[in-house]
Design brief:
By secondary structure, this protein is mainly alpha-helical. The chain has one domain: Farnesyl Diphosphate Synthase (Orthogonal Bundle). The protein has a two-stranded antiparallel sheet. The two termini are 18 Å apart. About 2% of the residues have low confidence.
Length: 322
């Protein structure tokens, strides 16, 4: 029987419960419209994977303290700000099955809400002199923005090779999980912050490859298939499949990819091609290599319930079905 998120959370359940209550209180404001939007954002929070990485990393590297709570809040504030802004950029009406802020309150308000969240995170850190934590998280936000822009630039030309793909996902996804683990370690004393940053980076790489695999999965499992293909995103299974194709096959698939946004049958054509060329198996192999690198780092930490849960959380991220 696979382990559940509740079981993974057990060693820090009290801390997470206290954190969520504190975070809700910290989001309150005297501006009625803003308070309404903050309440809506807090209510639609997902699995809270990011705070789990922060608190488990802190516990595995030392002791959870007030700085750990502030670090987790900083990550949630800055990351939520980027998500609100992303939805405006993508003109997205939904996030995690809920209406996006811009869908309910329009773009102008959504941009200002993102700015407000960003400023709350900055103030929280400056008031408590958490400059090391602020540096870690700010660098992650910078990398996430760079990764998104690099992906946009490459998507236009459809010339992403494996090296470019790995750099994009390192910046877009892995940098955030790396910052969660580094913040947790830094809050607990800081000696292992760089090691835990690398641990989080490997986890993030594996996490994103798993996410990319969903695009080629069976219906009814995880996310809807073909979203990345319709958006002309070059992910690892497709990049590898193209590297195994003849020049004629490559030309045909890139043509199908360009037509995929308007023609659903082209999406199916790309998926069939990727599976036939072994793209799925290759991506799973690479994902497992990153998972192994993360495991090797975790095993260097002192044996504790926190380390055990941290390793289980990593396994959960790459065996999840959504």
């Amino acid at each position: 029987m696979s382990i559940t998120l509740e079981q993974i959370k057990a060693p820090i359940a009290a801390h997470i419960g206290k954190f969520e209550a504190k975070f809700r209180d910290s989001m309150k404001t005297h501006v009625l419209l803003l308070d309404k939007i903050m309440t809506y954002i807090v209510k639609r929070k997902g699995k809270q994977i990011r705070p789990l990485f922060v608190f488990l990393s802190a516990g595995a590297c030392g002791e959870i303290n007030d700085s750990t709570y502030r670090g987790a809040a900083l990550i949630e504030l800055l990351h939520t700000a980027t998500l609100v802004h992303d939805d405006v950029v993508d003109n997205a009406d939904y996030r995690r099955g809920f209406f996006s802020v811009n869908a309910l309150w329009k773009n102008k308000i959504a941009v200002l809400v993102g700015d407000y969240l960003l400023s709350r995170g900055l103030i929280l850190s400056i008031e408590n002199k958490d400059f090391a934590l602020l540096h870690i998280v700010s660098n992650a936000v910078k990398e996430m923005s760079e990764g998104e822009l690099l992906q946009m630039e490459k998507a236009r030309r459809m010339d992403i090779d494996e090296a470019a793909y790995f750099e994009i996902i390192r910046q877009k996804t892995a940098s955030l999980i790396a910052s969660c683990c580094a913040v947790g370690a830094a809050s607990a004393g800081g000696q292992q912050a760089e090691v835990m940053k690398k641990f989080g980076e490997w986890v993030g790489m594996a996490f994103q490859i798993k996410d990319d695999l969903f695009d080629y999965g069976a219906k009814g499992i995880g996310k809807p298939i073909g979203i990345d293909i319709r958006e002309n995103k070059m992910t690892l299974p497709l990049i590898y499949a193209l590297s195994q194709a003849s020049s004629g096959e490559k030309r045909n698939i890139l043509s199908a990819l360009r037509k995929a946004p308007e023609q659903p049958k082209k999406v199916a054509e790309v998926i069939a091609f990727v599976k036939a060329k072994g793209g799925m198996e290759y991506a799973v192999e690479v994902m497992n290599s990153y998972y192994k690198k993360a495991q090797d780092i975790a095993l260097q930490l002192p044996d504790s319930v926190y380390r055990t849960s941290l390793m289980q959380l990593v396994e959960f991220t790459i065996t999840r079905e959504m």
